[in-house]
Amino acid sequence: MSNQSSPADHFANRFFRSIPHMNETGIRLGPMEAGKVTLVLPARKDWLGDPQRGLLHPGPLTVLADSACGAAVGVTLDRVQPYATLDLRMDLLRPAGPDRDVSCTAECFRLTRNIAFTRATLRQAGDDAPIATALATFMRGTSNRRSAGGGTPAGAAGAGAPASTSASAAALPEADSGRPAPDGKGLVWQPPAASEPIALGRQVPYIDYLGMNASRTQDGTRLYRLPFAEKLVGNPVLPALHGGVIAAFAQTAAILGLIEALPEPRLPKAIDFSIDYLRSGRPRETFARCEIVRVGSRVALVQVWCWQTSPAEPIALTRGHFLLGEAEPQ
Q1: pLDDT block averages, 10 residues each, the chain of length 330
Q2: What is the spatial distance between Cα 173 and Cα 203, in angstroms, rounded to a whole number?
Q3: How far apart are CA 286 and CA 303, in angstroms?
Q4: Do the beta carbons of residue 37 and residue 21 sit within 8 Å?
Q5: What is residue 171's three-state secondary structure?
């Protein structure tokens, strides 16, 4: 009998437990078979995004879907190899509360030589009706980019990481020199020195969990900031932020930017959300800027750019529709 474990065994028994953000959130592995994985997000008050209506923030759901889709790829591959998330789309079908676990069953339904296609369905415990669906696409790496330690899948459950498992900065798409990158005009971009807490007139547990704050540039542009924390790491090999965390940060920035732009107090509710991963999110502070594309009577469209060293080098580009709802009483 061979002592070599399959990619599915490798993922379940070793890699899954090595991811800081997965351990910190308590996401656990459910039923698993060829091409299909179920992950479960335990109920937690930190996931609350709308205290007034008692609803989950879309961010934890995105983290769960992102992780499950990456896991589905990991158990589908016939050999251990790195892979990276290209994009993720979420449709939020119905509201969910923070008092029940959420499960996500993801399937890798198409695997080519270069690309893996996945889809996922999220349900809350005790309810058969889906609360959200997701589609995610991954780029497969090549065997010569496998690490000396056995080729841990770079994208599995830590989506958004590049298809490389080398710990050497020289082997990464961008070396982590710690210096800001040029902004395209030959200038060096520097973030505002001062920042302030997110002020909504109420506590939003998930914003507190992420540790987000905000500041303004000299031209008045509102920036949202995600300070680095070890608990946000999704790829401990590079290391890199969890792709779902980057998406959750962008979703939160979109909601906050929309709240600030509306003429009357409203708390928007996410309808759909998509993210394109452009670069790995390194272990440093991340910034986001919103553009309100359109605000109608009931629905708004918002784009968000996320970056770390320079706005000219974004790590992610996102867009989403939000339901505005009724104006809140003054």
Answers
A1: 55 71 92 90 94 91 96 88 93 93 97 96 94 97 45 38 28 33 62 88 90 92 96 92 97 95 86 96 97 94 96 96 72
A2: 38
A3: 16
A4: no
A5: helix
In the block, which residue shows the tokens 């800027």? 289
- Could you give the C-alpha distances from 196 to 121, 129, 214, in angstroms and in order? 37, 40, 5
Q: Which two tokens stand for residue 135?
A: 């589609």
Nearest CA among 84, 163, 68 for reference residue 116: 84
Contact 319, 305 (CB under 8 A): no
Report CA 116 to chain centroid distance, whole Å.
Answer: 18
Length in residues, the chain: 330
Burial class (CB in 10 A: 0-12, 13-18, 19+), 45: exposed
Domain ranges in the chain? Answer: 7-164+184-323
Q: Which residues pair with 87 in a beta bridge?
A: 137, 276
The reply to whether omega before 239 is within 30° of 0 (cis) is yes
For residue 66, the surrounding DSSP H or E stretch is helix 58-76
Q: What is the pLDDT of residue 203?
A: 85
Closest of 274, 173, 289 to residue 225, by C-alpha? 289
Options 3.90.1030.10, 2.40.40.20, 2.40.290.10, 2.40.160.210; CATH for 7-164+184-323 is 2.40.160.210
- Closest residue by Cα to residue 315 from 245, 221, 230: 245
Q: Rounded to whole angstroms, how far apart are CA atoms 215 and 218? A: 10
